[in-house]
Amino acid sequence: MFDCYADFHIHIGRTSSQKPVKITASDSLTLTRILEEASSRKGLDMIGIIDCHVPEVIDEIENEIKNGKAFKLDEGGIRFEDMTLIPGCEIEVYDYKCKGPIHVLVYLPDLTLMKHFSDWLLGRMTNVNLSSQRIYEDAYTLQCKVKELGGLFIPAHIFTPYKSLYGRGVSHSLTEVFDINLIDAVELGLSSNTTMADEIEELHSLPFLTNSDAHSIPKIAREYQHLKMKASTFKEWELALRNEGSRRIVRNYGLDPELGKYYETVCSKCEAKASGIECRSCGSKQLIKGVSNRIQELSTATSKPNRPEYIHHVPLEYIPGIGPKTLEKLLDFFGTEMNILHRAKEDELSAVIAPSTAKLICLAREGKLSFEKGGGGKYGKIRTKN
After folding, report:
1. What is the bridge-based pairing of β-strands 186-187 and 208-209?
2. What residue ranges do the domains of the chain occupy?
């Protein structure tokens, strides 16, 4: 068994020929840059690229294999030096049972199966060359297709106000749209954590994932998980989600919910913090409901299940005093962000950067930072005086 750090939700911004894939993602999010950043700088062992249904992305990965820079793993996944890539796809579900659009993540063991899935999507999707596109098919049929191909089906960022399961898609229960027996896990997303999500009893039977949903290079691994597995393969990840044979999720690392940009309800007109049905500042009824308020509405649980430890992770870019030059100094000395965030001692950090900044890194590691709460699409901020 070994320790595996993984981020399973990373977007492709553009292909190598500069064709757009995820429209809202940075142009710098190419396959090559993602592989370099995730492995060499972030220190991840596994990643999920969730735009692998795009034919040109499939071709790029296959070229890496043909050129000897990667190889297929017998138990699923593609190995690039010290890191495994899991092929994935993000899809928007909005069938007759949905109250609003829902984003889901589909992961498959290899590119052959992903090609088959991409061909299946062709007749059900307007543009298979773009990310997160709407599928014109009912949710249950999609779930069954994923299982037919031996894949994993995971609702994405389930609480965010837009295009998510509880944020928009259902009134009260995921069973309004999906067969819970065909769901392998759920992705918590920004502005929530394990304690908050376990207020909803129907989620107690499902594993929780914490992924970055990276739309730019720096956002890779802003949320991730620590797994215990025998090898970094698709099959081992599947077994870890089921807690089989000592394989498991050890810890989830995610932003403190108060740092998330959807934590509190705000007025979409004047951006003031709001509650109830209208803004007290301007009287507008156009509110962006915060994750914390939505979970309160859905709360049904009278007990809490045993869960992996949830660590409130603060990415280095959020910490005051760490700009691009300071980050490069830290990486030159400690190697990867995983080392900086979790392994370097305070005196070691102080030898490289300002002691006050080193202290903030260690306070973040211990969960002792305080924040100005985020909401309405704006991230929270770290308070430097605690």
Report:
1. parallel
2. 2-257, 316-368
Closest alpha carbon to 157 in 206, 184, 190: 190
| pLDDT tens-digit series, residues 18-38 | 999 999 999 999 999 999 999
How much is the pLDDT for 376?
Answer: 67
Q: pLDDT class for 386, splitting at 50, 70, 90?
A: very low
Q: Locate 146 and state its tokens.
A: 């994923």
220 with 212: CB under 8 angstroms? yes
The closest of 141, 341, 119, 120 to 223, measured between CA atoms, is: 341
Helix H or strand E encompassing 115: helix 111-122
Read off φ and ψ for residue 233, nearest 5 degrees.
-130, 165
Buried b vs exposed e over 75-99: b needs ≥16 C-beta within 10 Å?
Answer: bbbbbbeebbbbbbbbbbbbbebbe
Q: In sequence order, what are the residues at sequence separation of 6 or more whose Cβ sits closer than 8 angstroms to the Cβ of residue 237?
A: 6, 46, 86, 152, 227, 229
Task: Dig out the tokens for 231 from the structure.
Answer: 């090898």
- The topology under which CATH files domain 2-257 is TIM Barrel (3.20.20)
Q: The domain at 316-368 falls in which architecture? A: Orthogonal Bundle (1.10)
Record the tokens describing residue 308, joined without a space.
């992996």
Nearby residues of 280 by Cβ (< 8 Å), 6 or more positions away: 272, 274
For the segment 108-135, what is each residue's pLDDT rounded down to a tens digit? Answer: 999 999 999 999 999 999 999 999 999 9
Instruction: State in Å, rounded, how far the first CA of the chain is from the last one.
Output: 39
Amino acid (1-letter code) at residue 56: E
pTM, 2 dp: 0.92
Distance between CA 303 and CA 277 in Å, rounded? 30
**What are the pLDDT digits (tens) for 262-294?**
888 888 888 888 877 888 888 888 888 889 999
What does the alpha-carbon distance between residue 265 and residue 271 come to, in Å, rounded to a whole number? 9
Say which DSSP state 39 is in: I
pLDDT class for 363, splitting at 50, 70, 90?
confident
Task: Specify the residue for token string 């993540």.
Answer: 105
**Hey, what are 66's tokens?**
């043909």
Contacts (Cβ under 8 Å, ≥6 apart) of 381: 259, 371, 372
